[in-house]
Amino acid sequence: MFDERQKEIGTVLEEIAEKSMKEWTEKEKSMTKECSGNEDITVAVDAGWQKRGSGRSYDSLTGHCSMIGTRTGMILDYSLRSRTCRVCVTARRMKKIPKVHTCRKNYSGSSKAMEADMVVQMVADARIKGTNIMTIVGDEDATTIARLRNKVDKSIIKLSDSNHVKKTLGKSLFALRNKHSRLTTKIIYYFMKCFNFLVAQARGRPEEISKNLPALSKHPFGDHTSCNPGWCQSFEDSSMKFRSLPYGKPLKDTSNCRPH
């Protein structure tokens, strides 16, 4: 009985979701026009899977993706992908004809390609309904933006999500630790902390972020020539302790080959 009630409630929830997304899409367009003079909206997209991929194997049977307006912060659309249907699988195993049901199987490709497929579908559907999505904020996966430009619009702009950029930086630093034992976990987290602070302080000002990036490779070594006095306390007081680094002291460049 629970399964039957779940199906009834699910249908109602989907109807409410459609109404809500339509309402917030109009608000997103209105706020965008008010701020920039046009309705070319920017959305953030991200996908999740029922089963997490290992990096080498992606075999989840289902995936879901949401599209959020960057001005309203509300969900404007969502999409689901399923490589199987329990009713159909059961009937096939019993060598019977499946009973009349709402089949949720709508995908037969690889699990890893689900995200790109869902994003392309959501953006294409939005365009058909009159919503002009011109900028996508997402992770560092190049496949999604490549398919969007190939199947929807070549002029769509891709922006990186700060959280995914941080994860990519951390992943690269942890990979370096295999060859450089002195690059401890504490030091890696300090680099990531500096990067997050640098980006947060210049939010919405990409030119300033670009200008301050060189400080990321100098500040931890006690070189503050590229630091911004607005966020670097050591800029005016060089005796400040690095409480997040070993022994409270800046790192030393003993090899004299530190990249800038």
Molecular structure report:
The mean pLDDT is 86. The chain has a five-stranded mixed sheet. The protein folds into two domains: 21-160, Nucleotidyltransferase, domain 5, CATH 3.30.420; 163-248, no CATH class. A hairpin with a 5-residue loop joins strand 2 (62-69) and strand 3. Helix 3 (114-128) packs parallel to helix 4 and helix 5 (162-176) runs antiparallel to helix 6. Helices cover 43% and strands 13% of the residues. It has eight helices and five strands, in the order H-E-E-E-H-H-E-H-E-H-H-H-H. It has helices spanning 2-36, 86-93, 114-128, 142-151, 162-176, 185-201, 206-212, 215-218, and strands at residues 41-49, 62-69, 75-82, 133-138, 157-160. 13% of the residues are buried. It is an alpha/beta fold and 260 residues long. It comes from Mytilus galloprovincialis (Mediterranean mussel). Residues 2-232 form the Mutator-like transposase domain.
Q: Helix count, per DSSP? A: 8
Strand order of the largest sheet: 3-2-1-4-5
Helicity, as a percent range: 40-55%
Q: Which runs of at least 5 residues are low in confidence (pLDDT < 50)? A: none
Number of structural units classed as domains: 2
Q: C-alpha Rg, in Å?
A: 24 Å
What is the CATH topology classification name of the largest domain?
Nucleotidyltransferase, domain 5
Mean pLDDT metric: 86
CATH architecture of the largest domain: 2-Layer Sandwich
Biggest sheet details: 5 strands, mixed
Shape: globular
Number of beta strands: 5
Q: Alpha-carbon distance between the termini?
A: 65 Å
CATH class of the largest domain: Alpha Beta
Strand content: 5-15%
User: What are the secondary-structure elements, in order, as H or E?
Assistant: HEEEHHEHEHHHH
Q: Structural class of the helices, strands and pairings?
A: alpha/beta
